[in-house]
């Protein structure tokens, strides 16, 4: 194995709490929704980190924190050595060139009153210093070509495109400033199945050509498996298990990961008989009032008294050499 | 559970503008912007055409009254008092022997001027306040809401009386400036509220987040991303307001706290003719009819534009 | 291999004019749901999804023939459903699989008679329920069938439930208005129905409002509502699309179990190949408002006989393997306003020939009964030739 390159992004203990205020005249903080509650990970150049979890686990909030659309409550996030969370506006603007995001909904993420050329070219208006020398139209055309659109599309408006094409426009916009990291927040979940594959393939090709690092956020575990080198599984604002794609998918040790994987519908009717679905009871608890100790214990079939009192750290467990936040981590193969 | 919800989830209804890609053998999509879509709807709406024709007619009267009547509206002769139609005076003469038709045609100018300037004033105030309150929110928004409450509490007539007496600059003139200022100061609240709520809606859109992630500043976001997407309902409100401002101007003039003679205004003529309605009805009917039609035209135009821009009413 | 026109079973339908009021369901609930309310999950295999025996008479519960639905839009006439035929037998699960714009939801709405007309216009076809055509039958009778014997579950439970009424009240609304049962009885029945769909602590939650339930629980409330009249056919339109994976599995299990318990037929409308593989007996694949393939679930996944089905299956990423680039179908699904001439799939089809651009392929039987494909060059035949 080659020497591990330095991480391009290192997140340490990122926290985002949304205060819950009561009272009209003098609002008093009575609690907090702990959307992201101490998340740490590293991202190396050119790799894809898949971030999976159910709605409310904090994965999208984490993306917003990293893009500084939300102000973090605590923690650090070093992008190329600079702390994103403690950066002033001017420096942040410059640093934004290194990290961009592709959003989930291709129908709302493009300004309906702007032409495709204006949308894709806007990054150059905002960062004139990063704009290509010479012809701007040329640069826009090249970007469009890179994502599989033709120059004839440049003067059209977003509503004239299908969902898949709009997502391509969003990707072209994210590529304009030549970033090294792209956060993909559910980039294919709004697309038709037959179109999803096109966009996933495009993202993979761009990664190969441009050496991009991706944080790939999705609830579709099959897509994440397909594209990711490493995986982090989130539950209620925390990472509960992380490792290489093979480690997490083939040798999961956290009960939540196992349940999640077992519930994924398999497009193969012959698998019905041998499939074992771990049925979790109940719903995800409110992030405003997470359970004590292990947050998963209220839905876990292995929960012991210890789980309520002692929070399991995300650390390497004896059963398999990858971090898992479970006191009773054991190997259970879910995928045949 | 109802049909309505189902309609909302039909695959067709969800993405009305979806067009197939050029690749794959299907015909190339028609190039049409959102405004183009609205125009497509407007063109098929007869109410729009009636309203637009009336508006054009009134504006033409205001700009070039000579096209409609060559008679001088101020050339009055009491010897012709209540005379019947003759020559160019197709509607006869009024109490002072003035040409009723000519006066009515020339009255359009005051109405249109007052309406336009009042709308301009309310538009500017409403746009700035609404945009700032909607975009920045917080204490600015709270402050604006209180200011609106205060303004809504001021009675129109009182303000008109006070201002028309106090505005020195306007005391000698026709009174247009004070009427415009009264309407502007009291009339901007609706425009600001509409602007604020559509800015709020636009601000939470993903494309605004995308611009912020690119590092765009507040000015660029407001100007390039929010304003174009928030403008349609604002324009509708202003169009309708133009009609109501014209009606209010007539009311104020009728009550002698708006425009003053020698200005020619429908409101003044209605007030004068009202006193002598038993002798002759036409001097009252003509300006009243023109006023009503003008107000109606602007309100219908606003409604038609709203229908065209409101995606919820689209099929 | 020879092809023949896919035959429509022509059998006489016995007149069944009198209303077949479902027997009042007594005693569903508590005992059956007990095992579901256990606080922790257990390792279990998927519940048995064996199909209920088909009736020997060969009569279909629902038989849709050549259904056509158009929408008048500003851009022209959208031909959303273009001659769809399918049938459901009592007790079986039929999946209607399609992408956005395939017309699958509109088909369901046409069957239930909840299309907005205008803009929708049913241009032709028959929707035979127990031999009677729902499209032409007397309105009174139609209301009876649609309210009592066919029920529907929607994708978005939040907007399908009225926020200002307690869930128990909504669940029994039909019972009260159609059967005129007493208030106290209605509440007891609501609790029973909530037990049936495994809502924990039903007796305490019967007076709660929709917003007090989680997404999965709301979906259960809606299923309870649909089951109140004990329908013979339940149509579920993307019932789990808005839900998380673990909750999705719960709801699909529930639907499969209820289908078996109550011996209803289930039409599952979805775009999710995984969900279909888990629960369906038979599958109807739709593309551009037409049926492109019909087969039982094993045959369809094992040997798809239409290039679209084949491409769709190949483009789904699999949990168990990390591929080297996904197979993808080029292009995008067509706009119903401008459906390509000939075979609607030809612009995206790797096997397309001149013939496909001109002639629309009909749904032809392949081999066994109940297996059909609308392709001039079914991949099976192609494979045989290249082999």
Automatic annotation (TrEMBL), chain A:
Cite the ABC transporter domain residue spans from the record: 9-261
UniProt keyword Transport present: yes
| Any Pfam family the entry gives | ABC_tran
**Is this entry keyworded Transport?**
yes
InterPro entries under this entry?
AAA+_ATPase (IPR003593), ABC_transp_ATP-bind (IPR050319), ABC_transporter-like_ATP-bd (IPR003439), ABC_transporter-like_CS (IPR017871), Oligopep_ABC_C (IPR013563), P-loop_NTPase (IPR027417)
GO molecular function, a single term: ATP binding
SUPFAM superfamilies, sorted = P-loop containing nucleoside triphosphate hydrolases
Q: Which UniProt keywords apply?
A: ATP-binding, Nucleotide-binding, Transport
Family affiliation: Belongs to the ABC transporter superfamily.
Report what the protein is called: ABC transporter ATP-binding protein
TrEMBL record, chain B:
How is this protein positioned relative to the membrane? Multi-pass membrane protein
Query: What's one Pfam family here?
Result: BPD_transp_1
Parts of the chain that traverse the membrane: 46-71, 112-137, 143-163, 175-195, 230-255, 284-305
Does the keyword field hold Ribonucleoprotein? no
> Could you tell me the keywords of this UniProt record?
Cell membrane, Membrane, Transmembrane, Transmembrane helix, Transport
Q: ABC transmembrane type-1 domain: from which residue to which, for each copy?
A: 108-302
Sequence segments annotated as region (Disordered): 8-30
- The reply to whether Transmembrane figures as a keyword in the UniProt entry is yes
Which InterPro entries does the UniProt record give?
A: BP-dependent_transpt_permease, MetI-like, MetI-like_sf, OppC_N
Tell me where in or outside the cell this protein is found. Cell membrane
Highest taxon of source? Bacteria
Amino acid composition bias (Low complexity), ranges on this chain: 16-25
Q: Which family does it belong to?
A: Belongs to the binding-protein-dependent transport system permease family.
Name assigned to this protein:
ABC transporter permease
What organism is this sequence from?
Asanoa siamensis
UniProtKB/TrEMBL annotation, chain C:
Q: Give the originating organism.
A: Asanoa siamensis
Q: InterPro entries from the entry?
A: AAA+_ATPase, ABC_Ni/Peptide_Import, ABC_transporter-like_ATP-bd, ABC_transporter-like_CS, Oligopep_ABC_C, P-loop_NTPase
Region Disordered: start and end of each range? Answer: 1-21
Under what name is this protein listed?
Answer: ABC transporter ATP-binding protein
Q: State the compartments where it is located.
A: Cell membrane
Which UniProt keywords are present, listed alphabetically?
A: ATP-binding, Cell membrane, Membrane, Nucleotide-binding, Transport
Q: Membrane-spanning residues where? A: none
Q: Name one Pfam family in it.
A: ABC_tran
Its taxonomic path starts at: Bacteria, Bacillati, Actinomycetota, Actinomycetes, Micromonosporales
